[in-house]
């Protein structure tokens, strides 16, 4: 049987290198994780119903897909749910992240695995288990304002 010979010098060199590596890499890993978790805060979005581009929202049951001007990778679906209210929610499916479609007959479907959501973004049929991420909406006259919800 071979005896494990690990000199004091080898031990200090090895453990010292590991400590230095941990001291350098550890904070870098934390910074990468923090950077990934940060997202650009959304500025409020205003939609004017007098604008022909927003005509779909002038009727109850209408819907429109818009891009967050601050983050074009974050499409938002806006639906007209009543004469006096709209809903807005992320188009990113809560199952595995596919982009959901605009509603057909008041049903929003994810083409990937057929999850279904209502006009307010609430899941009605899995496999998704969570509602679509919603935004706060207000309607004042012809102006709809969409804001990120504070949690
Ligand atoms: S990603 Fe939408 S149902 Fe799977």
Walk me through this protein's architecture.
With 151 residues, the protein is an alpha+beta fold. It folds into 2 domains: 1-38; 45-148, Rieske Iron-sulfur Protein. Helices cover 20% and strands 30% of the residues. The chain contains 1 helix and 9 strands; from the N terminus they run αβββββββββ. It has one helix at 8-37; strands at residues 45-48, 63-68, 71-80, 86-90, 108-109, 116-117, 123-125, 134-140, 143-148. It has a 6-stranded antiparallel beta sheet, with no helix packed on it. Strands 5-6-7 form a 3-stranded antiparallel beta sheet, with no helix packed on it. Bound molecules: FE2/S2 (inorganic) cluster.
Number of DSSP helical runs: 1
Ligands: FE2/S2 (inorganic) cluster
- The overall strand count is 9
The CATH architecture assignment of the largest domain turns out to be: 3-layer Sandwich
CATH topology of the largest domain: Rieske Iron-sulfur Protein
What is the number of domains? 2
* Share of helical residues: 10-25%
Based on CA inertia axes, which overall geometry fits?
globular
Give the amount of beta strand, in percent.
Answer: 25-35%
Side-by-side strand order of the widest sheet: 1-9-8-4-3-2
Which CATH class of the largest domain? Mainly Beta
Average pLDDT figure = 81
What is the straight-line distance between the termini?
Answer: 62 Å
The CATH superfamily name of the largest domain is Rieske [2Fe-2S] iron-sulphur domain
Note the run of SSEs as H and E.
Answer: HEEEEEEEEE
Unreliable stretches (pLDDT < 50, length at least 5) are 27-37
Instruction: Return the structural class.
Output: alpha+beta
Largest beta sheet, briefly?
Answer: 6 strands, antiparallel
